[in-house]
Amino acid sequence: MRITCTSFVLLIQICPLQCLSCVSTDSPFQLTNKATGSCLVQTNNKCNDIRWTTGDRLLIQQRNKCLGVQGKSVGSEVSLYECDENSELQKWECKNETVLALKGQELYIELTADNTAVLSKTIGPNNHLAISGTSSGACTRTYRELYAISGNAAGKLCMFPFMYRDQWYSDCTTASSENHPWCAIETNYESSNLWGYCPTNSDWHVNPATGAIYQFNTQSAVTWPQAEASCKQQGASLLSIINPYEQDYVTGGSKLWTGLILDPEHGWKWSNGRPYRYMKWDSGYPLPYPGHNCAIVDPTVQYSWQSLPCTKKVGYICYTKGPEENPKQAVETGFCSSPWISYNGHCFHLNRTQKTWSEAQRECVLEGGDLVSIRNVEEQSFVISQLGYASTDELWIGLNDRKTEGLFDWSDHSTVSFTSWEFGKLAVSTDIKDCVLIRGEKGNWVDRVCDERHGFICMKRSASKPTGDEVEQDVGCKTGWRKHGSYCYFIGKETKTFDEAKDDCKSSDSYLADVSNGVDNAFLVSLVGMRPEKFFWLGLSNQKNTEEFVWNNTDIVRFTHWNAEMPGHRQGCVAIKTGIFSGLWDVLPCANKEKYICKHLAEGAVLTPTPSTLNPPKCADGWSPVVLRNYCFKLFTEPSFKKRTWYEARDYCMTIGGDLLSIHSAFIVYETQLNRLCSSKSLIIILCLLLLQLQFQHWRYDAPNNKNNVEFCVEYQLYWRRIGESWNDVHCETYRGWLCQILAGVIPKPPPDPVTPDYNRSLDGWLEWKGNQYYLNSKLMAMEDARHFCQQKHADLVTINSEAESVFLWKQISNSYWPYWIGLNVDLDGTFTWMDGSPVEFQRWDEKQPDFQNNDENCAIITSSMGFWHDNNCGYEHRSICKRSGSSPANATVAPTVPPRGGCPQNWKRFKSKCYNIINSQRETWEGARTQCKAMGGNLASILSRHEQGLFYDFSRKLPFLYSIEIYIYNFIHQKYSPEPTVPIEYVKVFNDSIKVVTQPLNWDAAQKRCQSDDANLASLRNGWSEVYIELMALNLNSPLWIGLKKTQTGRYFTYVDGWHMTLSNWDTGEPSVNQDCVYVDVDGRWKTANCNKKMTSICMKTTDIPPTESSDFPGFCPEDPETTRYGRHKSTWLPFKGHCYLFHTGSTDWPDASAKCVKYGATLTSIEDPSEQQFIQNNVNIYKDGESAFWIGLYKTHKGTVTLSWLDKTVMDYTNWDVSQPGKGIYATIESSNGGWRTSRQWPNRGYICKITKGETVTY
Q1: Mean pLDDT of the chain
Q2: Residues of the domain holding 184
Q3: Matching CDD domains, A to Z (predicted)?
Q4: Quick one: 277 and 376 in the same domain?
Q5: 1022 in a domain, yes or no?
């Protein structure tokens, strides 16, 4: 099964760090049961190979089938089925190491005597399944998370197995792809046509200046952990940048993940361990908001860095420079005269004389060296463990950015290959703090003003020959042993199992080494960190009790230094790592053969006697002693102490001189103390936030689960029935009580001031936060009533537009235990809209939400437990949240136009303010015709508009005749001005249509019924002649006319009432409106929308034409990839939908350039013709919403924006999806990635774009 990358750091949080050590492999395995001697899956008495695959499924590759079960009941047979990633009957998980269970169920696979597999409710010998040849279970293996590169799936995970052209594939295939291996994203490729290339060596580009190799995944949209996993699966890491030359090389045209991540101990650091010595943060970044723990490069600000929540989905850059070279141990340590101490070819001297940074450097230079340069974790460990360094020291080191602001270098010009910053102490941008010192118990680094006075550490090369006055370092230890403190240490020369190593140490009157504190661990790092072996045994294990680790020589564990993913639920023995992640601890099978470290008390050394139990340090009033530790603790849940977030709780503990409590043992006395303290406050659950060091763990049965990828801190839940399962991972902004610890005998300092809220509360109960006001309505109401309540207060149900706003609101309701209505509509088609009409820019749905249960959950609530959203029946009664801003929208009403009155003489036709008469009975020259017209009180007609041109078709009532203005004409038209209109009241034949005006003012529905009484419909304008004729009727009447065009009931799609789709349009500026559903032709001939209840004249039409039926068959193929990248691999791929293919490109460009690029592919910027196409495009751009806010589409304004919006490919605009307050003044249109709304924009903002092309008849593979 998949092993998640949740790491437990030393003194608290569960942080989204990278997997530093993934001990599992994705290779196939066979599962056997010792009790029966049978295999789980076998064919012809031969065991079949099994491997984990996507979706927690077990794949049998030889059969291309997955392990499944008939049902969720005892006795259901376990067999092989067609793989289905959506089936809950094919998902498995491990229990007790070697037991497989149906995921989420207490139903376990059991092998029976007749070699069949069934589900059982209990666990016995027949349930234990081990990998053949080992004692390990299936969960010691994992599946390879293979993220696709390029293709059309935005970098999603490959799905194995998948079916392509009726054939199953359990791995990448080159079928139909010119030897490029690829994978499908869904089990059935034909269901979505989503695919991507499998990573190969050809995807990379070499930087000739540095030799580094890069992979630019600009078309992907993945979270930070997914991006990191994708890079790691290729033996690389996310991009790290350690100097301006590497920064200058970064390109890509879109927002891209880097390897920067916020570490709770060291602050910002690169995930691959490269030094954080160069900074290129954008102005105002990194943001201090909760959850903004990862970073991107943004092309809109010259690829400066910006912090971002790790759950956002953008592209990414992978980086590698080949295998990382481990620090090498010097062949000879060298010799140093007293008081200098030798280590790895150098001499070191700690000097506590107070000097400025420059004075300290001069002192070191005079001694033949320089300020110390610390090049790796081994040297860092040596400095804090073997030079007499004290936790109270503040000592200058050689790191500084005096030469180039934001670029730190060593004063001796050695390469910066390691950094160890203190959290929050590296200034982002300053011209004052240019020098660095080392301080604190862990020896982390801080930038300070160079003129401050501190002690310092010097370093110089060691001598090749003895000087005669060297400091003797290993007094009291045998030859070959190294001394640290009061103890001697020895490195075993041969690899041994844990038990063998333990016995070998015992034979030399020593024991496998224990580690009491960080300084001891640092010494071990300095001792073995540079050696070529990967691991060295320590004396820690949980062989006897999986829930508790103990040392060989003592049960008390005071310190741990676990690697990421460790210890998890593993049972085994502990070894210390070397190399890049030197000093971290892994749990390994005790049968592994590794070298080891022995330890014993040095000769002549005297341990500090244990303090007399008669007079132990006392705890301050109100504090209780911690069992077996020299600490006291206190529970803060009194009413006078407001509950706090994890960060606020830790600040409180540190201010009074302690820290959040850490738990290191399961002694019942200790548990009883907590039980007594907590139960005295309440009989129900008391939640206490803790600081954890994971030597001992008491996870709740379903934890840690990192729900919704936001639970990075840990709480203590004390149940009166379940003492043994008390830890749970939670959101760090959760309000809880807390437990502080402080050294026994220490008097707590005064507590900090109460936490000042970041909002104000008005006298009438409104919360004022960041320019908006919020009101928590505690009355239970249905949604409509709740909204009415808000509107009475000049507000509306709340809109939530950011993570920060969501957390703010959640924190206000977290103690209420009630959900609250928010102002979100949930449509049946899966779309969301805010009730106040604002765009949906942010969503925070809970797992498996929205679920549209019973198709009646069309409203949304925010939960008090985590602040996530659920869809809900609008009629249910809940509390609610109102929101308002400081300004109200202005309303304006346009005064109606007063229609002019007038008419024409007999036999003359009125048009606007003119009357026309056509003379067919005689022929005249142009001059003669003009003379006769003048004699009748008019003149020869002048054609000043398309409507006047169309008028002459009405005169002739036959095939159109375009009258020419020439010297000689055959017929001529008189024109004169006169005042009273006439209206035809019968049907007029226009080609296959018959058209009639209904002068009675009716609303749209009534007008349609009036036409139906004539066996007609409101008119559909499907050709130029009927269009012009109807425009003339509107003009002649000087009155708007309803036509048969209306929005559909389910979307913003205009269709004619008689079933015809639009083939032409003449929309007015700003039309069609978002909020009006019915269409009329106005007196100026332009099409406009209005409320369907408005009464106006209408026009009916009969026709003999039959509307075409829509096809459900869309044959054809998409073209090959439009271009190859500059890095040798396809950049993106066409995605089919109905009769067209689409290219979604995330590279930033302006609208004209985007249009030109589409033309180069034989395509155009996309048009959007109906709701289904809108939904298809919206689903695809939504994938990129965290990296691209919008994409260019082919909609633009003609005549410099003063006339109408038109589609570039000439598609008629019968569908719109304008965002709120749109269209605006911009000339070109975009589709918003977050909600699919259309917006107008100027041409120069750089955005992604979407190309569209008709499917072709053939495709070349």
Answers
A1: 81
A2: 162-197
A3: CLECT, FN2
A4: no
A5: yes
Backbone angles phi, psi at 652, to 5 degrees: -60, -50
**Residue type for position 279:** M
- Closest by alpha carbon to 824, among 795, 805, 800? 800
pLDDT tens digits for range 98-110? 889 998 899 999 9
Report the distance separating Cα 851 and Cα 1035, nearest Å. Answer: 52
Q: Given this model, what pLDDT does residue 498 score?
A: 95
Does 193 share its domain with 287? Answer: no
Rounded-to-integer distance, Cα 747 and Cα 851, Å? 54
8 A C-beta contact, residue 1007 and residue 1018: yes
512 close to 600: Cβ distance less than 8 angstroms: no
Contact between 158 and 196 under an 8 Å Cβ cutoff? The reply is yes
Quick check: 180 and 1124 in contact, CB under 8 A? Answer: no
Same domain, 370 and 445: yes
Mean pLDDT of 734-754: 86
Query: Are 495 and 558 in a shared domain?
Result: yes
Structural tokens at position 361: 């450097």
Segments of 842-971 assigned E as strands: 859-862, 869-872, 878-885, 909-911, 914-919, 924-925, 939-940, 968-969
Q: What is the pLDDT of residues 1168-1219, one digit of tens each?
A: 998 889 999 999 999 888 888 899 999 988 754 445 788 988 888 888 888 8
Q: Residue 361 — φ and ψ, nearest 5°?
A: -65, -40
Examine the domain organization and report whether 651 and 684 are in the same domain: yes
For residue 1029, give both structure tokens.
């004729």
Q: Identify whether the C-beta of residue 620 lies closer than 8 Å to the C-beta of residue 714.
A: no
DSSP string, 449-478: -TTS-EEEEEEEEPBSS--S-PPP--TTS-
Residue 854: which CATH number?
A: 3.10.100.10
Which amino acid, residue 915? Answer: C
Contact 700, 687 (CB under 8 A): no
Distance separating alpha carbons of residues 671 and 662, to the nearest angstrom: 13
Angle at which helix 377-386 crosses helix 518-528, to 10 degrees, equals: 130
* DSSP type of residue 1195: E
How many structural domains is the chain composed of?
Answer: 10
- Residue 542 in tokens: 């949980």
